[in-house]
Specification:
With 503 residues, this protein is α+β, with helices and mostly antiparallel strands. 29% of the residues lie in helices and 22% in strands. It has 12 helices and 20 strands. Strands 11, 14, 15, 16, 17, 18, 19 and 20 form an 8-stranded mixed beta sheet that branches. A 4-stranded antiparallel beta sheet has the order 1-8-6-3, with no helix packed on it. α9 packs across α12 (478-493). The longest helix is centred in the first third of the chain and has 22 residues, at 2-23. The N and C termini lie far apart (68 Å).
């Protein structure tokens, strides 16, 4: 009985499937065969998203659809964010070099970050359109690549007898790949002159040989200040081997202090000089011009930080055992995040139509970093979910990457609030400018030991620190900023109070 029922059941199921398939057929389509309908019905039942094990995914490669011969232009791709041009920081190839797919071609700097451009093809570089320090347009050729070509140097070396071929030289990777090195010859042999592309651009604009400039940066690197001092003060001693006194000093907050000026008097420049704004400084000019259109208001408060200093002295040995440099800033950042939880309007942004305010759930607090390339503001993501040591570790990474010009786009985007630790350089008060679309920013002054009266009228020494706040008056009023500052003041003056609000 069961065997007789099975064929009829199959016919019922098949009829149902065919009828479902016919529903989705266009009226103008002729009736297909039964096998075609069954194949279409099978595709209808296939899920739109399937496990990789059932439906393996294939990836298109450059070699599948790319041309295999001839000379083709390699254009600068659209990097997004409305960026129309990028500055060429460094070329990794020159005309006549053989390249492989994914080989680095050049480093470019957009308004957001530094990006390494890699090749999509195998071939030979026939022409370079944009030189180092110039601006390359998005969509325009960077280089021409001969897909079927052979490097002249490779051909020449291949034609030589085996006995005359020199052994390959060992290339040692540099710890700071974004620093160019130029070899000059001194009395004791070759000497490396290290400088960033931005510094080299300033030197090139003013027709200065970097070999004539004494570098005062780490390991003898030539900084922008060195070039400017050379321009204003005339000749300097030739480049020498770096000494410990030439290394760039760090402050207690792990932020780079300015390079000390030479002991000799600096004479003013003799004639007007025009230096183009490029890279980070051009971005800063655009950003600050836009921020000037927003109505700011300022607020300043004094914080007694003896308790903060005591807490850091207790945590620093623990951080040292984990090889983490702990300054005051990570503790201030964590306290700021806790205060933002009380007043989320300070961690928000307003739309262009001035009709909506978006309260941000993540506390992505930016930290202004002064680098030889200009002012950068990377941000630490999700501080509300991080411990003080985790914040310190991420802060160390961002500051090191900013110094080496290696910050990624994600490091510079997504900020919701900003602190500028200007006190590591000097100064107590400031008037910080908003970093749009954020609505608040704070500038931390230096810590000072001053006399103060206690509750009984006795004078005693205390350590104080000022924080100058600026806020978008379209969103924030003075009372809100004062209340936020009072909460932060309580956390910094009594750090143990943070334990009640830590999760």
């Amino acid at each position: 009985m069961l065997r007789r029922l099975l064929p009829s059941a199959r016919r019922v199921v098949h009829s149902s499937i065919i009828s479902r398939a016919m529903v989705f057929m266009p009226r103008s389509t002729s009736i297909p065969s039964r096998g075609a309908i069954m194949a279409g019905a099978h595709m209808m039942r296939r899920p739109s998203f399937s496990p990789p094990s059932l439906y393996p995914r294939t990836f298109a490669t450059a070699s599948r659809d790319a041309p295999t011969s001839g000379i083709i232009p390699f254009n600068l791709a659209d990097v997004g964010e409305g960026i129309a041009e990028c500055e060429i920081l460094k070329w990794h190839v020159k005309e006549g070099d053989s390249i492989k797919e994914f080989d680095p071609l050049c480093d470019v700097q957009s308004d957001k970050a530094t990006v390494e451009i890699t090749s999509r093809y195998d071939g030979v570089v026939k022409k370079i359109y944009t030189q180092k320090g110039a601006m390359a347009k998005v969509g325009k050729p960077l280089i021409d690549i001969d897909l079927g070509g052979t490097s002249p140097s490779a051909s020449a070396s291949a034609s030589k007898p085996a006995s005359s071929v020199a052994p390959p030289a060992t290339v040692q990777a540099s710890d700071t790949p974004f620093f160019d090195e130029t070899t000059i010859r001194g009395r004791s042999g070759p000497v490396k002159v290290m400088a960033t592309p931005a510094v080299r651009n300033v030197a090139k604009t003013n027709n200065i040989q970097l070999s004539q400039v004494r570098g005062t940066g780490k390991d003898g690197r030539v900084l922008k200040e060195d070039v400017l001092n050379f321009i204003s003060g005339g000749s300097q001693p030739s480049q020498t081997q770096p000494t410990p006194s030439q290394t760039s000093p760090r402050t207690s907050a792990n932020t780079f202090a300015p390079t000390p000026s030479p002991s000799r008097p600096v004479s003013p420049i003799q004639q007007n000089q025009t230096v183009p704004l490029s890279g980070i400084r051009r971005v800063m000019a655009k950003t600050m011009t836009a921020a000037a259109l927003v109505p700011h208001f300022g607020y300043c408060e004094e914080y007694t930080v003896d308790g903060l200093m005591h807490l850091r002295s207790q945590l620093k040995p623990i951080a040292d055992t984990r090889q983490i440099k702990l300054s005051y800033l990570p503790i201030i950042l964590k306290a700021t995040s806790l205060a933002l939880s009380r007043y989320p309007i300070l961690n928000s942004s307003i739309n262009q139509e001035l009709t909506e305010v978006t309260l941000k759930a993540s506390h992505n607090i930016g930290v202004a970093v002064d680098t030889p390339h200009g002012l950068l503001v990377p941000n630490i993501k999700d501080i509300q979910n991080k411990s003080i040591l985790e914040i310190a570790q991420e802060l160390n990474r961002l500051q090191n990457d900013a110094r080496d010009n290696k910050l990624s786009t994600s490091d510079l985007q997504g900020g919701t609030f900003t602190l500028s630790n200007i006190g590591t350089i000097g100064g107590t008060y400031a008037s910080p400018v908003l970093l749009l679309p954020e609505v608040a920013i704070g500038a931390i002054g230096r810590i000072q030991k001053v006399p103060r009266f206690d509750s009984k009228g006795n004078v005693h020494p205390v350590h104080v620190m000022q924080i100058s706040w600026s806020a978008d008056h379209r969103v924030i009023d003075g009372a809100t900023m004062a209340n936020f500052s009072n909460v932060l003041k309580n956390y910094l003056e009594h750090p143990s109070a943070m334990l009640f609000d830590l999760k």
